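Support request from a user on the community tier.

User writes: "When I paste my structure tokens into the form, the page sometimes reloads and wipes my input. The last time it worked, I copied everything first. Here is what I submitted, just in case something in the input itself triggers the reload:"
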């Protein structure tokens, strides 16, 4: 997946202990103020087409965005 442009309409879905994968995130990427976020972006699909989609990712200050995934096309 490749994001073409900026992510807009960013919202925090969960943070801290509200994240189910918190232990694995901390083990793999390190301690941080982890947040699960969602937003809207134009993404390049595997077939080469472009589409607007809702994307989810985990983010921590000093670490950045990790585990980005497309949840649904809009």
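"...and here is what came back when it finally went through:"
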């Amino acid at each position: 997946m490749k994001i073409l442009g900026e992510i807009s309409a960013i919202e925090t879905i969960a943070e801290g202990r509200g994240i189910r994968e918190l232990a694995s995130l901390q083990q793999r990427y390190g301690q941080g103020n982890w947040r699960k976020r969602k937003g809207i972006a134009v993404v390049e699909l595997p077939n080469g087409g472009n589409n607007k989609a809702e994307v989810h990712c985990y983010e921590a200050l000093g670490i950045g965005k990790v585990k980005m995934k497309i949840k649904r096309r809009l």
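Agent notes: The reload is a front-end session timeout and is unrelated to the input. The helical segments are 22-29. The chain has a mean pLDDT of 90. Escalated to web team.
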